[in-house]
């Protein structure tokens, strides 16, 4: 169960960084 939480946090962080990168490139 703990592994699932860690994976979710990791994916969320990756998604957040990806969104920020795309937004930065857009500008």
From TrEMBL:
Domain of life the protein comes from: Bacteria
UniProt-recorded name of the protein: Uncharacterized protein
UniProt lineage: Bacteria, Pseudomonadati, Pseudomonadota, Gammaproteobacteria, Moraxellales
